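tl;dr need the bound structure. longer version: we got a ligand (magnesium ion) that a collaborator sent over and nobodys looked at where it sits. i said id run it. heres the input, straight from their email, havent touched it
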Amino acid sequence: MLAIESVSRTYPGGVHALERVSIAVAAGEIVAVVGGSGCGKSTLLRLVCGLDRPSAGRVLLDGGVVTGPHEKIGIVFQEPRLLPWLTVAGNVEFGLDGRPRAERAGRAKVQLARVGLADKASAWPRQLSGGQAQRAAIARALVTRPQVLLLDEPFSALDAFTRIDLQDHLLDLWADLTPTLLLVTHDVDEAIVLADRIVVMKPRPGRVHEEIAIDLPRPRDRQSAAFDFAKRRVLCALDRSLARPGVDREAAAEAGAALWW
Ligand SMILES: Nc1ncnc2c1ncn2[C@@H]1O[C@H](COP(=O)(O)OP(=O)(O)OP(=O)(O)O)[C@@H](O)[C@H]1O
Ligand SMILES: [Mg+2]
């Protein structure tokens, strides 16, 4: 169980990025965080994985306070951040630093096969497409078998087809070990395809505005009326969170567009 308890973060210089954010995530749950630009989503993920410390409040994993990078918490960023001087397999093994060489190689091989990159093990990062590089980053995060996987807009730099492909793939990977997933996204479709629950944040300072449970059966049909209904709910919550009058999202939703704002 991951508990974000009344977490605030003020950066040196005075930016009040987060104000008393509390989110409880059950083991194996998938929670998506959406909200306007600058409302503190990336800050929140950095606090959860221990790359930064809250100014107040705390993050607990199974009752223990997270005080720094934690082997049970993995993170994938918007850009893959692969090390260019290591092969793809080397990058995945990197997460297992300190383990025997044979074990590292074996586990990296298995994980690369799981993300469909078995044939790219000895390639260099620059030889990968955007989608392949992001899959390698996901393999690197999963190779340690984290209990919690944080994803900060992991597919937003990819084209629409690759994005949908990787969303489905992520669900398959999740089904393997069912880690807790905390996913930041700007793509409402992505949030609804993946999440059990969507946390809508509002800005200045970043706070939780609303939580919306998505109880659609999986796999979720992006074309269904229930999907559209959920999408309208989330978009309305986002409009309210930005204190913006509702706009007619219906036509766009019917066109099946992935909506960004
Ligand atoms: N290292 C930092 N030092 C000072 N201010 C920061 C720092 N990182 C972020 N901020 C500020 O904190 C606020 C929240 O930023 P954050 O990156 O967490 O937002 P976000 O919700 O992830 O935005 P986006 O959707 O654009 O990625 C912003 O006002 C940002 O300018
Ligand atoms: Mg961000």
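gonna send this back to them w/ a short note. Residues 2-72+146-257 form a domain with the Rossmann fold fold (CATH 3.40.50.300).
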